[in-house]
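Researcher: Quick sanity check before group meeting.
Model: Go ahead. Protein one:
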Amino acid sequence: MTLIVAKVTWLITGISIPTITEYYQKMFNLNSKAMYLQNLQQDEIFVPSEMKSLKTLTQMESRRGLENAIISNGKIVNVVSNSYGHIPNQLFFKKAEEMLTDAQLNFHKRTINKNDRSFITDFIIDDKSQFTVKNHKDLILPMLRFKNSYDGSEKTSGHFGFYREVCSNGLHVSQAEIEFSIKHSKNNTHLIMPRLNNLFDKFLDNEFYTITKKFDKMKEFKIIDTQEFVKAILDKTKLFRYECSDKNSDPSKKSREVIEILNYEALLLNEEPNLWLGYNAFNSVLHNVLKKSFGQQERLDKKLFDEVYAMA
């Protein structure tokens, strides 16, 4: 049986470190911290939206429980009942930002819009709490993610997470959610958000440092065979197929991307391939290559993290 990880020695086998390309230079350029935070994705999330009666739109009676249409940027994206409370992004995300402002936290904002249907805002906390995973070039920052959707694909929610500057992806391994209440009345939806100061301090005192210690532990375990590592994780998570096909056992395109990102990060950070870089290579493909909803990304990210950490 091939040894996949070890704590002391290492050897990259099977696939060579890829040629430097503009894609990887852009993704992993380590020139400055500011570069990452000033070039965050900034989609338009405040698209026009409204809830309208289907009877008004169609001049036809509708079935009970399907009385209204949610219209986002001129498109019908959902059909809902009279009891449904539509939460516009302008209300939800601005309330979330007010929470951070009231807590006097310095933050950078990333916004993502998926087809005018589902939306996120990531608030990346640029604070003294930043954590380095045994490499001054590999910085981790606490992050708050808020989600909303007009098509019902995502629960309106908020949770703590982590932002890794090297690959600019969010790491969704935290279990700490931000609780808020939504009160519906006949014509209005009211959001009651918590005070963030105590929640953020509690997150930093407990989960942030507990999980970042796990990141550090993963860094200690070197990957001996990157192909075998990727294959083992895919066997456990079923994220995608490792082989090209039943008749071709070579790594598939997605598998090769994971291996190339892992090896390339090791080169740029001047490190040996390890479990921490292995997890982040999968995280990068999950967020940038696979077509998954925000919720699916978060659930799969937690599963990936648990499987990789189990090897440590």
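Researcher: Fine. The other one?
Model: Protein two, sequence then structure:
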Amino acid sequence: MNAGKPLNPTRRGVKSILKAIGFALPILLGVPQAQAGAACVVAKRLGDSLAIEWVASPEESAASAIDRGKQKLIDQGYRNKGQDVHAQANTELQHAYMVIIKTQYITAVGRTRTSYGCGYSTRSAAGAEQAAVYDLRNYSWGWKPEFGYEVMRAFRY
């Protein structure tokens, strides 16, 4: 039983269709969509990080930030045999805190290793630093928190 206004499925259906059209129409017509993003790109050789570049801007998409970061490293000469230039972390957040961390430690087999972490947070620099530590651990399996790290850069874009 319906106590109150009678149910009108046609009206609800029209609203759903209008929402879908409002979402899809700008995409289909090629209307520029708001985009923003950031990326950290790392040059590595045999698991050791050689250099890092980052790009962050409200006018930058994550994909273009990755491309620009890679190009910066390639322009610095990090595209030799045995070297790998790749995106380590990226986001599509329009505005965020961004923290880049660096660590140097000795691996279990006695090799000196440099690694980086990059993190983003909409809430705080501390949250971005936590994300950077998580990123560091994902890319440097031999790193332990007791090895420590330094904050290279912390900012908001």
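Researcher: One line on it for the slide.
Model: The longest helix spans residues 9-29.
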